[in-house]
Amino acid sequence: MGKDLVIGRRRVRFRFFVFLFMAIMGCYYLIYSSARSPVYGIVQYGEMLLKDRGDALVIRQESVYEAPEYGRVTFLVAEGEPVEKEAPVAVLYKANYKEELVYQLYNVQEKILSYQQENIVQEIIDKDLERVEKEIAGTVASIQIVVRDLQLDNLDDYEKRLRSLFASRQKILNQKMKPDPYLERLYKEESELNRQLEEWKVELVAPESGLISFSLDGMEDILGAKAVNYITIEDFKSFYGKDVWEQEDDGKEAKADQPFFKIVQPGKWYVACLISNSQINYVEGEEVDVSFIGPQVQTIKGRVYRVVEEKGEILVIVEFNEKVEDFINKRSVKVEISKNFQGFMVPADAVVTRWGEKGIKVVRENSETFIPVEVVASDGESAIIVEKGESKQLELHAKVRIER
After folding, report:
1. pTM of the model
2. Three state DSSP letters for 193-236
3. How many angstroms separate the CA atoms of 58 and 60, rounded?
4. How many CB atoms lie within 10 A of CB 187?
5. From 2.60.40.10, 2.40.30.170, 2.30.40.10, 1.10.10.10, which CATH number describes the 37-67+221-242+260-404 domain?
6. What is the pLDDT of residues 49-90, one digit of tens each?
């Protein structure tokens, strides 16, 4: 056991020095506090623009439809174009298409023409018939070229025109003579070949009205409109970054029973944005501006639909009522959410916590009054506040104490 310090005839124990140190520090604090001049601020009316930036997922109400057959496709509508229910959207040419059917049909129709021309008086062949014949020959040649080169984009238009020309020619010739058994047989053969060609071609129609898109990412059923009510931050992280499927051959190949196109409902759509260290105090129902970051920044007004907070991160879901057509084939994007706040503004250090409640100390003459407040927005230097309760003690130009 160590020996105590002896001063004069008194034995001084160690606890005496502890007490002495605490007394000196207490005096120093009292002297420093009394010597330090208090700092004050003023309640002002101001505004503050705050911004949060983060990754976001686009959420839409959309339905996916499958291709009924394998084959090549000609699109009749553009990406994002509005379509009505039962409107043609694409023509699918089956993989088992036989090119010789087109030639057989042409040969039969040539036989019909030749027979009709041989059995009517030459002088009644008029210029209208000659014009139609030239157009038929040109159209058939165009069909042969596009089928040979597998350039089927305009094939449907050529076929429709060819059928129209055949009908016009038949109408002219039927006025000149009545069909006999030989001609009747040729007509039946022509009809059968037309039927086979129609079986080879499948016209796809829109099952419902909406905006059509041929860009798919496999999350259409997962991230539908109902997802906004239950999506979590963990869900967001697992979905973000999923790219839109790259369809082979520019999307001109269809595979049976595989997703082929989708119909997106216009109107309400959403983005779910993940934010770390948010500056904005998000409140459901309030309006915000959302800027979509890209080569061309696009800003749309939206409404905060839902807020999810987990471990210092915030998932903000914003609802929109316009411009879904601009994001019909986008899923993972980057956005900036901004909000302009207005109201009573004080220095940020004037907001203190007392008994677990935030407030400010208002100085009136020689007394201080603690007024509970809610911080609506803060940028670290200033804070927009609203008074809690109904006492209405907070006034413009009031003097507030700033804690340093």
Report:
1. 0.66
2. HHHHHHHHEEEEECCCCEEEECCCCCCCCCCCHHHHHCCCHHHH
3. 7
4. 14
5. 2.40.30.170
6. 989 999 999 999 999 998 877 777 778 888 889 999 999 888
